[in-house]
Every structure is written in structure tokens, then in C-alpha cells.
Amino acid sequence: MTTQQRSNLVVGLLLLLVGGWFLAGQFYPELANLIQIETTWPVWVISVGLVFLILSVIASAPGLAVPAAIISGVGAILYWQEQSGDFGSWAYAWTLMPGFVGVGIFLSSIMEGRLAYGLRELLRLALTSAILFGIFGAFLGGPAYLQTYWPILLIVVGVWLMGRGMLSNRRSRSTMERTEPPTPAEPAPAMEPEPMDATWEPAMPEDEQDEEDDEDA
Question: pLDDT by residue (tens digit) across 74-120?
């Protein structure tokens, strides 16, 4: 897949999501009422991030997708704070930044044709954000459910670290087995020379043989 084809794929995906949302809002007005976007200053912050994303597609510069995701993510937080009036949530909302970076890496990886790498980084950074959000939110005025269930995040982190350690150990063992040098073969035993026959006599040259025949005659 060429760069132009990947760019078209990203733009098509964005248009598909936006168009599908507005189309669903036409048939189901309750969906449109879920997010009532007003022209407030956080919306302009989100728009700047979208402009960065569009430029990354048009200019074939996947690296711009990372700042695009960060700017749009910050704009989304500001918009939520503007609507709820909870500006003190910055005490724990900043923990969502690694997740925004993961989204940017995922989008840039799509344009570069490295979907597996982008998905892996997205999951890793999203998990990091979720853990930090749960811990900081539980102690700094986050949602009430975090104050009750935040120990579950520690359990998840422990399981993840154990699984990662076991997987790394297994990979290192398999690598050592593949790179282990082969056992050198034993040298073949030296062949002893055959004993020379005691009755063997070297052949005489033809001239000497003729002279002996003449003497015998």
C-alpha cells in the first residue's frame, strides 16, 4: 500500500465516522442530544488538532498525527471542564496525556503501514493512562467509583508485569537455544599406514633388466 493510498484510507475513515454520526442523529435525535457541541473556545482547540491531522494526511507527514491527537485531546478535556465547571479536575486529568500520544502513534502507524506496531503502542499507553487516572483520581477528587475500585488497577498492573516477565523469559530462552553454537564433531581417527611386505622389492629399470638377461644368456 502506497502513502497516498494510506492517506486516503485515513481520510475516508474520518469522513465515515463523522458522516455516520450525523446520519444517526437524523434518525435518532437522542444520539445528537448526547453531545451538544457549542461554539466555545475549547472547540477551537479541538479544531486546531484536527487541522494538524488533516495536514499530516495531505502532506504525507505521519509524525504530525501525534501533536494532533494531543491538541485535540486537551481540547476535549477543556470542553468537558467548560460544560461541567470542574476545572479542578486537572489534578488527575493530565494522566490522559499518554493515551492521547498512543492515539497519535496509532494514526501515524496506519499511514505508515505499521498497524500492528501502532495497535501495540496504543494499548500500552492507554493502559498506562488508565492506571494513572485511576490512582490520581482516587485521591485527588476524581469520580466516586475510583475511590472504591482503585485497588483493582494495582492487581491489573501486577498481573500485566508478571505476564510480561514470563513472556520475556520465554523469549530469551528460545533466542538462546537458536543462537547456541553446534557441538563440534569428533575428529576422525588417524589411519595407520599398512605394514610393508618384507618380500617386496622395488622394480628395476628396463636397462638394468636387459643387462641381467644378457649376462644370464
Answer: 999 998 888 888 888 888 889 999 999 999 999 999 888 888 999 99
Q: How many domains does the chain have?
A: 1
Domain, as residue range, for 54:
38-165
Q: Is the pTM of this model over 0.85?
A: no
Helices (H), 113-189: 115-139, 144-179
Q: How many CB atoms lie under 10 A from the CB of residue 93? A: 22
Q: Give the three-state DSSP class for 212.
A: helix
Asked whether the beta carbons of 105 and 64 are under 8 A apart, the reply is no
String of DSSP letters for 43-112 = HHHHHHHHHHHHHHHHTT-GGGHHHHHHHHHHHHHHHHHHHH--GGGHHHHGGGHHHHHHHHHHHHHHHH
Inside any domain, residue 182: no
What grid cell was written down for 20?
455516520
- Grid cell locating 88: 479542578
187 found inside a domain: no
Distance CA(167)–CA(165), nearest Å, equals 5
Return the closest-CA partner of residue 75 out of 106, 52, 44, 54.
Answer: 44
In a domain, 28, yes or no: no
Cell of 172: 530469551
Alpha carbons 70 and 153: distance in angstroms, whole number: 24
